[in-house]
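Pasting two entries for a bug report.
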Amino acid sequence: MTAGPEPAISVVVPTKGRPRYLERCLAALGGAVSPAGGFETLVVDDSGGPEVERVAAAAPDGASVRVVRPRGTGPSAARNAGAFAAAGRHIAFTDDDTEPDRGWLAGLQRALDANPGCAAGGVTRNGARDDCAAEASQLVIAAVHAQFNRDPAAPRFFASYNVAFPAEEFRAIGGFDERFRYAEDRELCERWLASGHRFVHAPEALVLHMRRLTLRDFWRQHHGYGRGARAFRDARERGPQRRADPAGIQRALLDAVVHSDAPGGRLALAGYLALSQAATASGFAREALASRLRRSRAAAEAASSRADVS
């Protein structure tokens, strides 16, 4: 619930064509423990259709919902539209397929208040516990987070569905880079650190990922991760980058299989994890090819321009 013209936190929730998930997310926010100073929720309608207005209008009063429409499309543009329309001193990001815990915002706020100028990231778990694909996807995400955040005192990466920034500093570095449709959160995190800012853990800030995944959904998601990894690698102008250790990720995934109680059993989980790595490699290769083609076209156009001038 918002108190006064400047709430403590503005929550940005981009959405596109998932009204049932959005409804669950807003219901959870409506029941959240409000941080001191209150909060508002900005639902960013990234071509979600008329259902977005209906779901937003039916949200609990405690969620204090406003609907924002971005000028561009894609996750980066949607998140920026919400962030630059936000009134809060801090901006928290989550996705429409999450269910934030009642203490999520209060946990983020405590971490932010204790570390002025820092961004804070929380904990994410799989909420669709009977879905083996969703469980496998969350294990991959957790392994990647563990690699980038090996030093507990200096975390380097939090995904865009459970992270919060001081609003002024976030806007000062330009928000999300809208050229990125994948790995936009990784690019932002590296730029945040390069600008001299820090991240801190907010261990009490929990969100559950509720999305159930078909086989096609699973492949497309991890294919996108691969495309994002390659696009990020190609962005050399961003400066030094810390890369995850692929061997470390593989060890973490193997350990997860050994100790798993996932639905469908260990064999099914291992199959999904193997598929995730194949999809990621496929996406990486596709983006590498696309990058080479773009460079070739740019070189050809430059050569043609020089020929015309001469």
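Entry 2 (this is the one that rendered wrong in the viewer):
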Amino acid sequence: MKRYLQRYRAMFAQLVIGAILGILLLHPLTTLVFYLEFNDLLAAPTDNAWSFLVNRLQTSALQELVPMSAVFALLGAVLGLVISFYNRVIETEQRRVRWLERELNVHLPSLIATGESERLELKSTLRWNLREKRSDKTLEKVIAKSLAGLMNHRGGSLIIGVSDAGETLGINADCQTLKHKNADGFERALMDLVRSTLGAHACALIHCQFPLLDETPVCWLVVEQAKTPVFVQDGKVARYMVRTGNSTRELDAREVFAHVAQRESDAES
């Protein structure tokens, strides 16, 4: 609530400033343009633009000019609100860029060495079943749930090709199960998975890299926090996952309501 009050105060201030500038700047400028275009056609033309402008400003408070001043005040207020909205968008994008820069500048081996946490999850493969030595697409659902858990929490990193113990396995086995057996094919398959299970909007929250660990390629996904809840479509069931500690778990309906309310409260504070 405090954050919203501050936002509304800032918007009101921008509106008032815009209205004032509309009267003090837009009105005189429009008057000046009018002088340059139509002074010769006036019944009593003035000698210069300054005299004309001063005369108009001195009479701008008269009753017959109040509607015109109100129009310029409204135009200025609208312009102020547009600028306020634009500034908010820019600030949000700058915060997002700074967050991504911090995440991407982390030394990956050092990050893995810290072990799994609420902002880091390690997965051995995308779809390759290590025990049965075959492709197993049911494993992809685990990846989708892990991504949703990070999005519904505070964001973080998901690294595919590294075991829970920190052992580098790589993504080569996964790539051999794909039509395009390279990093591009891996990323395409991953984004198709996200699109089909989490929704197309979730793809924009994932930033994919393929660094080398021990000369073996792994997939490093930097995941942004979602502004709205992200659900995993599992057949006809939509599941709400969240990262808690070093694991991802599904919340029941009551927990989902509480978690979403807490997210909104944190966003306002």
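Dev reply: Rendering is fixed now. As a check, the viewer should reflect this: The radius of gyration is 29 Å.
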